[in-house]
Amino acid sequence: MPEIQHNREAVEALINKMTDVGKKSESVETRLNNLLNNVQAEFSGEAKESLELLLTNEIKKLQEEKENWQKLMKRAKNTADSFEEQDRSLAGGGVGGGGGGAMQPTLQTI
């Protein structure tokens, strides 16, 4: 019988670290929005326009990165689930009890 190699605890620890990074980006976004509000209230003229443009662009970039991070998190969880399913299948002798019939995770299943 094949040995199960997947370690769900290690995967969960990695996902938790990824979640922490995502939370930090939310904190940065909040701070940038607060800074933008301060600039809008306290500045005027070209300085205001330049800072607004700069901050708005940075906030948009951060939002895009946050969306990408969320997609990566989902893929990581799906990958962990696929490996766990494969481990269960291998431990049970494969699909249909014939052994070796377990679906191998691919980029399409991830």
Features:
110 residues; 0% strand
The parts where pLDDT drops under 50 for at least 5 residues are 96-110
Oligomer kind:
single chain
Mean pLDDT: 82
Radius of gyration from the alpha-carbon trace, in angstroms:
23 Å
For the biggest sheet, the summary is:
none
Distance N terminus to C terminus? 25 Å
Which class of secondary structure composition applies to the elements? mainly alpha
Number of helices: 2
Beta-strand level of the residues, as a percent range? under 5%
Order of helices and strands: HH
Helix proportion of residues, in percent? over 70%
Task: Describe the model.
This protein is mainly α and 110 residues long. It has 2 helices and no strands. The protein has helices spanning 8-42, 45-91. Helix 1 packs antiparallel against helix 2. The longest helix is centred in the middle third of the chain and has 47 residues, at 45-91. The radius of gyration is 23 Å and the shape is rod-shaped. Residues 96-110 have low confidence and may be disordered.
